[in-house]
Design a protein that fits this description.
Blueprint (H helix, E strand, L loop, with lengths): L1 E6 L3 H16 L3 E2 L8 E6 L4 H16 L8 E6 H6 L2 H5 L5 E3 L7 H9 L5 E3 L19 E5 L1 E2 L10 H5 L3 E2 L2 H13 L4 E5 L27 H10 L6 E5 L8 H9 L6 E3 L7 H7 L5 H14 L4 E8 L6 H14 L3 E6 L17 H24 L5 E9 L7 E4 L5 E5 L9 E9 L3 E6 L2
Parallel strand pairs: 1-2, 1-3, 3-4, 4-5, 5-6, 7-10, 10-11, 12-13, 13-14, 17-19
Antiparallel strand pairs: 8-9, 15-16, 15-18, 16-17, 18-19
Helix pairs in contact: 12-13
Length: about 450
């Protein structure tokens, strides 16, 4: 069958979709050129915000409606929304052929075969106590790849549905991860991004190293830093990234590992969510404003070029104007390179859903806009400091907006636009002298 996947949500969903695509191809199916061409369509869903669920539900409903004209077309749902809604999704979306929850994406080729044999409304939902199914299949990923190392989350932040839909933390065995990355490197991958909901928690909930494994060459004791050291030793890799972080993971050993291992990029996505200690307590984030800024200080003191990005929620229940101004001030103090700002929306079953959502939508929008404007100013200032420097850019290919120019990313994860030279190739490293800065983008000239 000709198939296509539509993916909503985070990088872990992107990685799951890539694995499913590779498994479907291995089972004899072929990628479709577009949706109209597809006999099999799978929607990979997100539940983090209500808007993301609404988009996925709307899309899956429209797709199922096409079965009136194409009754043999197969429509499937996977991911967080499938896990959350369970059997109810078949009532909400008539005509849906299968629904697969988190930790079970490897089952999709088998479920497609069952639908082709005549079954309908098949559901596979994972239970919290089962060992996750983590396919290591990759497609033709080129020079960069995502690798999931940690599934689930144990933090139980008040607003977050992730622990309910992705289950408790499970760290994949180190040997399994290293074998997957080594295979990717042999196939030409030069950059890997290690994924986890709270990635620096790797190895805290279950054992990941065997007694027979060699000790750390640099004396690292923590599971995550030991993994970083081992990944950095894989031949062919030139860059390592990891996301998303939590201030509790910014240990002295983590800082030492990032500083001493040259393959690790000096960039971290470190969600702050709020700058108010009162709101952070209500959110159950597990740190204070001072704790967060201390993590930032230690990273930047060890590596002055360290780039930080973050997530922020505005309009959390009970957030006053004073709380909001605390968030503005912590964002200025942390001097973020970029920030993703979201208006609070309650998620069913979370503790925050029982709180009074008392910040008006208009006020959430106002606060959102103020933080966006603040960040534009910070982004310009941060990028302006790089004008005149030479950045080592991992080339991605022609720019989406202007095919005559090419783009890539700096170690700090900044997009760099430049004119290519005859030697410029995707996956190569280019030395780019920065000549101009915008809030989210750098522009420069290739150095011969």
């Amino acid at each position: 069958m000709r198939f296509i996947l539509h993916t909503y949500g985070c990088q872990m969903n992107v990685r799951d979709s890539e694995a499913v695509s590779a498994l479907l191809e291995a089972a004899g199916h072929v990628p479709a050129r577009n949706e109209a061409d597809a006999d099999l369509i799978v929607v990979n869903s997100c539940s983090v915000r209500g808007k993301a669920e609404d988009k996925a539900l709307g899309k899956i409903g429209l797709l199922c409606a096409t079965k009136r004209e194409r009754p043999t077309r197969i429509i499937g749902l996977m991911g967080c929304m499938a896990q959350r809604l369970g059997d109810d999704v078949f009532k909400r979306v008539p005509g849906l052929d299968f629904s697969v929850g988190t930790r079970r994406c490897g089952a999709i080729p088998r479920l497609v075969a069952r639908v082709m044999a005549g079954e309908t409304a098949i559901r596979e939902i994972s239970s919290p106590d089962e060992t996750p199914d983590v396919p290591d299949a990759h497609g033709a990923s080129g020079f960069a790849a995502y690798v999931t190392i940690l599934l689930g989350c144990n933090r139980r932040c008040a607003y977050c549905i992730v622990p309910d839909v992705r289950g408790p933390e499970f760290s994949r065995p180190a040997r399994e991860i290293l074998a997957e990355i080594a295979a990717l490197a042999r196939n030409g991958v030069r950059e890997v991004t290690l994924l986890g909901q709270s990635v620096m928690n790797y190895g805290r909930a279950n054992a990941v190293w065997d007694a027979s494994d060699a000790p750390s060459a640099q004396g690292f004791k923590e599971p995550f830093t030991r993994l970083l050291e081992s990944v950095a030793a894989i031949p062919g890799l030139i860059r390592i990234r990891f996301t998303s972080g939590h201030p509790s993971g910014c240990t002295d050993e983590l800082v030492r590992a990032v500083r001493s291992l040259p393959q690790i990029c000096h960039h971290l996505h470190l969600p702050v969510q709020s700058g108010s200690d009162r709101i952070l307590r209500l959110m159950r984030r597990g740190y204070t404003r001072a704790d967060y800024l201390d993590a930032v200080r230690r990273l930047r003191e060890a590596m002055p070029d360290f780039a930080l990005t973050t997530d922020v929620i505005v309009g959390f229940p009970g957030e006053t104007e004073a709380d909001f101004e605390e968030t503005r001030s912590v964002m200025n103090a942390a001097d973020f390179d970029n920030a993703f700002i979201f208006k609070y929306s309650p998620r069913p079953g979370t503790p925050a859903a029982d709180m009074l959502d008392d910040v008006a939508e208009e006020e959430k929008m106002r606060r959102n806009q103020i933080l966006l404007e603040d960040q534009d100013l910070r982004g310009v200032a941060a990028n302006q400091r790089l004008v005149g420097t030479v950045q080592e850019v991992l080339v991605e290919g022609p720019s989406l907006r202007n095919a005559a120019r090419w783009s890539g990313r700096s170690p700090g994860n900044k997009i760099v636009i430049f004119d290519p030279t005859p030697a410029t190739q995707p996956g190569s490293l280019a030395r780019i002298r920065i000549t101009r800065a915008a809030p989210q983008t750098l522009y420069g000239e290739a150095q011969i």
